[in-house]
Design a protein that fits this description.
CATH class: Alpha Beta
Protein name: dTDP-3-amino-3,6-dideoxy-alpha-D-glucopyranose N,N-dimethyltransferase
Pfam families: Methyltransf_25
GO molecular function: methyltransferase activity
CATH topology: Rossmann fold
Radius of gyration: 16 Å
Largest sheet: 7 strands, mixed
CATH superfamily: Vaccinia Virus protein VP39
Structural class: alpha/beta
Organism: Lacunisphaera limnophila
Order of helices and strands: HHEHEHEEHEEEHEE
Number of strands: 9
Strand order of the largest sheet: 3-2-1-4-5-9-8
Distance between the termini: 17 Å
Keywords: Methyltransferase, Transferase
Number of helices: 6
Length: about 220
């Protein structure tokens, strides 16, 4: 699927994201962990912000000036109605250019919709958009190898892809960032999240300078 097709699918799902039935706790505890590393002043970006604003509100409560990015026009229409004071951008993260550096970027359950061939470039873009000591939290499929699929598990056509854990760690290193936390948080589902931090000055030799907690060696299977 092309990103424009993913946008149409999320247009159809937008009301579900804004519904009181949506689990507003989804992703919040990992974000609280990531925010412990982040400055309490500066700009923050929620990539794939959706309609309910749960992550935006958490970042605001931390003292950050928040912006939201989403490719879905309907998601953003609902988000703007609910959060009129927030700056929202409509765009495809593959081609969208960050207007500034951010001390915190969230890409929770969003960039895995990026076409596999473009995921490395998108992740490097987000890493380069971090201010020194800035923090990025993102999710991915926890496989040992690159993979992609399209299905209708959400009721509409949807595309997911992953670079695979080894390649993800390589990109974090390439982007001059330090891996601070890595977790299979929904085991046995192969859903992983990573918290990475921009190096402030000195180059480093290893992509894993701080790993909390130790990563389990889990064999990869298809998502």
């Amino acid at each position: 699927m092309k990103p424009t097709e993913v946008a149409k699918s999320y247009d159809a799902l937008a009301a579900r994201w804004a519904s009181p039935a949506f689990d507003l706790a989804n992703g919040i505890e990992p974000h609280r962990r990531a925010l412990r590393l982040a400055p309490t002043r500066g700009a923050a970006l929620d990539v794939g912000c959706g309609a309910n604003g749960r992550i935006l509100q958490l970042l605001q409560a931390h003292g950050l000036d928040v912006e939201g990015l989403d490719i879905s026009a309907e998601m953003l229409r609902l988000a703007r109605e609910a959060h009129p004071g927030v700056t929202f951008h409509q765009g495809d993260i593959c081609s969208w250019c960050p207007p500034q550096r951010y001390v915190f970027i969230s890409a929770w359950d969003s960039i895995w919709h990026v076409p596999l061939a473009e995921q490395r470039g998108v992740l490097l873009k987000l890493l380069s958009a971090l201010a020194p000591a800035g923090v990025l939290i993102f999710t991915a499929g926890g496989l040992a190898h690159p993979d992609e699929r399209t299905d209708q598990a959400m009721g509409v056509p949807m595309y997911h892809a992953t670079l695979g854990v080894p390649h993800l760690l390589d990109v974090v290193h390439e982007g001059a960032c330090i891996l601070r936390h890595f977790e299979y948080d929904q085991w046995p589902e192969l859903h992983v999240y990573a918290i990475v931090q921009k190096a402030e000055s000195n180059p480093f030799r290893s992509p894993v300078l701080a790993l909390l907690p130790p990563v389990e060696q889990i064999p990869g299977t298809r998502i």
